[in-house]
Amino acid sequence: LNDELAKGGALVLLDGLDELATPAYRSGIVRRIEDFARLPGTAGNRFILTSRIAGYWSYPLGEPFAHFTIQDMSDAHVEQFLNRWCREVENVQTPDQSEAEREAKATREIDGVLGAFKESPGVRRLAVNPLMLTILALIHRTGARLPQKRVELYKLAAKTLSKTWQEAKGLRETLDEGRLTQLLAELAFWMHENKPTGLATRGEVVQIWRKRWAELEGLNPKTDRALIENQIDNFLERVRRTTGLFVERAPVRYGFMHLTFEEYYAAVYVAQKDEASRARIIRKY
To answer: 125, 139, 149, 276 - which has most CB atoms within 10 Å?
Structure first.
C-alpha cells in the first residue's frame, strides 16, 4: 500500500463514517483522514469517503475534500434500470422460453412497475432507491399488484424481504413471519426512540428481545438467561443471512436495511397497542 501511495496512483475508498459510535470518535477519525490525505508523497492519489447525511455536517471533512450528494434516481433512471433488470431476470429465470416470449414478459413487467411508479406517491418514494426499486420489481414479478396505499406497499415489501426474497435466492430456510414481525416491531420502535444513527449493538438487540423471546418460548428470563441469549443469537444470524430487513451494517452493529422499514415496523408496534397506549404514544410525538 505504501508503494502504491508513493507512486501517486492509489484510489483509497473509506465507507461508513456515519456508523462510528460517538460524535467525539467521529471527529477524531475525520481529522486523521484529513491528515492522511495531506501526507507528503501522497499527491496524485484519490480519496473517497462515504457517509449518510444524518449527522455528517457536525464534523465535515475539510480541505482537500470536495462534497457530493448522491441524488435519487430520476424518472429516466428508473425506466432505464427496469428496462435492463427485467430483461436480464427473464433471460436468467426462463432460458427455455423463446426470445420473443422473454421479451414480451419483460415488457409487461416494465410497464406494470412504471405504471405504479407514475400513479402512486408511495411507490415513487421507494423506487428512487435502486435496492427498493429491485424489491418493487420482484414483488410485481410474483404477480402481486403494487398497492396505492403506502402502508400496504411497505407491508408487502417487508413480506417480500422476509419470505419471497428468500425463495428468489433459492434458500430453503424460512423464518416465521409472525414472530419476525413481532420482534422487529419492538426493536424498531426502541431504535426509533433511542438510536438516531440507526445502529444497535448485538448486546442491545439481545436486551430488547430477551423478555419477549422468553414469553414466546415459554422460558424464564432469569434462570434460562444463557439459553435465551443463545437462541436470540441464532435467530439474529438467520435474520441477517436469509432476509434483507435487518442486517449487520458494521462489525456486531445491526440496523434496518432501509430507514423506511425501521419506520414501518415502529408503526406496526404502535398499531398493535391498545387504544389508550396508542393515543399516549402519538401524543408524545
So the answer is: 139
What is the number of alpha carbons within 13 Å of residue 207 lying toward its C-beta?
7
3-state SS, residue 12: strand
CB half-sphere exposure, 120, CA atoms < 13 A:
23
**Spatial separation of the C-alpha atoms in residues 29 and 19, rounded to whole Å:** 12
Tell whether the torsion through CA atoms of 171, 176, 182 and 186 is positive or negative: negative
Q: Using one digit for the tens of pLDDT, what is the confidence trace for 10-56?
A: 999 998 787 676 778 888 999 999 998 888 777 789 999 998 776 68
User: 153: burial class by Cβ within 10 Å (0-12, 13-18, 19+)?
Assistant: buried
Grid coordinates standing for 239? 435474520
The whole-model pTM stands at 0.64
84-106: b or e for each residue (b if 16 or more CB lie within 10 Å)?
Answer: ebbbebbeeeeeeeeeeebeebb
Q: Are 45 and 5 in contact (CB under 8 A)?
A: yes
Environment class of 158 (CB within 10 Å of its CB; exposed 0-12, middle 13-18, buried 19+): buried
For residues 240 and 255, give the distance between their C-alpha atoms in angstroms, rounded to a whole number: 10
Cα–Cα distance between 158 and 175 in angstroms, integer? 13
Q: State how far the Cα of 219 lies from the Cα of 210, in Å rounded to an integer.
A: 10
* C-alpha dihedral sign at 140, 143, 145, 150: negative
Query: Which of 13, 10, 21 is CA-nearest to residue 249?
Result: 21
Distance, CA of 38 to CA of 278 (rounded, Å): 54
Q: Is 209 exposed, middle or buried (0-12, 13-18, 19+ CB in 10 A)?
A: buried
